[in-house]
Amino acid sequence: MNDILGISNTQRVIHRDKKMTMYSLNEGNQTDLIYYAEVNQEWLNTLDHKYNWDNFNQFDNKLWEYMYKLFDDVVEKADAKTNEELWNNLNRCQKLFWSFLAFGGDTDNGGVFQQTSTCHFCT
Protein backbone atom coordinates (compact mmCIF):
# COMPACT_ATOMS: atom_id res chain seq x y z
CA MET A 1 0.00 0.00 0.00
CA ASN A 2 1.29 3.45 -0.76
CA ASP A 3 1.97 5.82 2.11
CA ILE A 4 -0.92 8.16 1.33
CA LEU A 5 -2.87 8.49 4.57
CA GLY A 6 -0.77 5.73 6.05
CA ILE A 7 2.10 5.71 8.48
CA SER A 8 4.96 3.33 7.95
CA ASN A 9 6.59 1.67 10.96
CA THR A 10 9.57 4.01 10.65
CA GLN A 11 7.29 7.03 10.95
CA ARG A 12 5.60 6.01 14.20
CA VAL A 13 7.27 8.69 16.31
CA ILE A 14 6.05 12.18 15.62
CA HIS A 15 8.23 14.96 16.95
CA ARG A 16 6.55 17.98 18.49
CA ASP A 17 8.81 20.35 16.54
CA LYS A 18 7.62 18.90 13.22
CA LYS A 19 4.61 20.64 11.67
CA MET A 20 1.61 18.33 11.51
CA THR A 21 -1.15 18.76 8.95
CA MET A 22 -4.64 18.58 10.38
CA TYR A 23 -7.65 17.66 8.25
CA SER A 24 -11.26 18.60 8.81
CA LEU A 25 -14.30 16.52 7.96
CA ASN A 26 -15.78 19.71 6.54
CA GLU A 27 -12.99 20.21 3.99
CA GLY A 28 -13.41 19.32 0.34
CA ASN A 29 -15.91 16.90 -1.11
CA GLN A 30 -18.85 15.93 1.09
CA THR A 31 -21.18 13.89 -1.11
CA ASP A 32 -19.62 12.74 -4.39
CA LEU A 33 -18.21 9.23 -4.62
CA ILE A 34 -14.95 9.88 -6.46
CA TYR A 35 -12.92 6.93 -5.14
CA TYR A 36 -14.69 3.62 -4.61
CA ALA A 37 -14.39 -0.15 -4.70
CA GLU A 38 -16.81 -2.33 -6.56
CA VAL A 39 -18.06 -5.38 -4.71
CA ASN A 40 -20.53 -7.98 -5.84
CA GLN A 41 -23.35 -9.61 -3.91
CA GLU A 42 -21.40 -12.87 -3.65
CA TRP A 43 -18.62 -11.09 -1.70
CA LEU A 44 -21.20 -9.63 0.70
CA ASN A 45 -22.94 -12.99 1.11
CA THR A 46 -19.62 -14.71 1.83
CA LEU A 47 -18.88 -12.19 4.56
CA ASP A 48 -22.33 -12.67 6.07
CA HIS A 49 -21.80 -16.41 6.15
CA LYS A 50 -18.21 -16.29 7.43
CA TYR A 51 -18.90 -13.65 10.10
CA ASN A 52 -22.42 -14.40 11.24
CA TRP A 53 -23.78 -12.91 14.45
CA ASP A 54 -23.65 -16.26 16.26
CA ASN A 55 -19.85 -16.15 16.10
CA PHE A 56 -19.41 -12.41 16.54
CA ASN A 57 -16.12 -11.60 18.27
CA GLN A 58 -15.04 -15.26 18.21
CA PHE A 59 -12.88 -14.49 15.19
CA ASP A 60 -11.90 -11.28 13.46
CA ASN A 61 -15.06 -9.54 12.41
CA LYS A 62 -16.38 -7.98 9.23
CA LEU A 63 -14.98 -4.55 9.98
CA TRP A 64 -11.47 -5.56 8.95
CA GLU A 65 -12.68 -7.20 5.75
CA TYR A 66 -14.57 -4.02 4.94
CA MET A 67 -11.44 -2.03 5.72
CA TYR A 68 -9.29 -4.05 3.31
CA LYS A 69 -11.80 -3.93 0.47
CA LEU A 70 -13.53 -0.60 0.98
CA PHE A 71 -10.62 1.52 2.08
CA ASP A 72 -7.20 -0.02 1.53
CA ASP A 73 -8.03 -1.05 -2.03
CA VAL A 74 -9.59 2.34 -2.74
CA VAL A 75 -6.52 4.25 -1.52
CA GLU A 76 -4.20 2.02 -3.52
CA LYS A 77 -6.18 2.57 -6.71
CA ALA A 78 -6.68 6.31 -6.21
CA ASP A 79 -4.26 8.40 -8.19
CA ALA A 80 -4.06 11.11 -5.54
CA LYS A 81 -0.57 12.59 -5.35
CA THR A 82 -0.82 13.95 -1.79
CA ASN A 83 -2.69 13.27 1.44
CA GLU A 84 -4.53 16.56 1.02
CA GLU A 85 -5.73 15.64 -2.48
CA LEU A 86 -6.95 12.25 -1.30
CA TRP A 87 -8.67 13.70 1.78
CA ASN A 88 -10.40 16.44 -0.19
CA ASN A 89 -11.71 13.91 -2.72
CA LEU A 90 -13.11 11.46 -0.16
CA ASN A 91 -16.74 12.05 0.71
CA ARG A 92 -17.79 12.68 4.30
CA CYS A 93 -18.68 9.04 5.04
CA GLN A 94 -15.31 7.87 3.72
CA LYS A 95 -13.54 10.49 5.85
CA LEU A 96 -15.38 9.28 8.95
CA PHE A 97 -14.55 5.65 8.18
CA TRP A 98 -10.87 6.48 7.60
CA SER A 99 -10.72 8.52 10.83
CA PHE A 100 -12.18 5.60 12.76
CA LEU A 101 -9.67 3.18 11.20
CA ALA A 102 -6.73 5.51 11.86
CA PHE A 103 -7.70 5.99 15.50
CA GLY A 104 -8.27 2.26 15.97
CA GLY A 105 -4.93 1.49 14.37
CA ASP A 106 -3.14 3.86 16.73
CA THR A 107 -4.85 2.53 19.85
CA ASP A 108 -4.88 -1.21 19.08
CA ASN A 109 -2.11 -3.07 20.86
CA GLY A 110 -2.44 -6.57 19.46
CA GLY A 111 -6.17 -6.77 20.06
CA VAL A 112 -6.12 -4.76 23.28
CA PHE A 113 -7.42 -1.27 22.65
CA GLN A 114 -6.02 1.41 24.87
CA GLN A 115 -5.89 5.15 25.17
CA THR A 116 -2.55 6.34 23.99
CA SER A 117 -0.63 9.57 24.22
CA THR A 118 1.25 8.72 21.02
CA CYS A 119 -1.81 8.93 18.77
CA HIS A 120 -0.84 11.31 15.96
CA PHE A 121 -4.28 12.94 16.18
CA CYS A 122 -3.78 13.70 19.89
CA THR A 123 -0.27 15.17 20.02
N-to-C CA distance: 25 Å
- What string, H for helix and E for strand, traces the elements in order? HHHHEE
Put simply, the count of helices is 4
| Whole-angstrom Rg | 16 Å
Q: How much of the polypeptide forms β-strand, as a percent range?
A: under 5%
Strands side by side in the biggest sheet: 1-2
Structural notes for this entry:
This protein is mainly alpha-helical. Helix content is 40%, strand content 3%. It contains 4 helices and 2 strands. It has helices spanning 41-50, 62-77, 83-89, 92-107, and strands spanning 108-109, 112-113. Strands 1-2 form a two-stranded antiparallel ribbon. Strand 1 and strand 2 form a beta hairpin. The longest helix has 16 residues, at 62-77. It is globular, with a radius of gyration of 16 Å. Mean pLDDT is 76; it is low at 7-14.
Write a brief caption for the model:
This protein is mainly alpha-helical. The chain has helices at residues 41-50, 62-77, 83-89, 92-107, and strands spanning 108-109, 112-113.
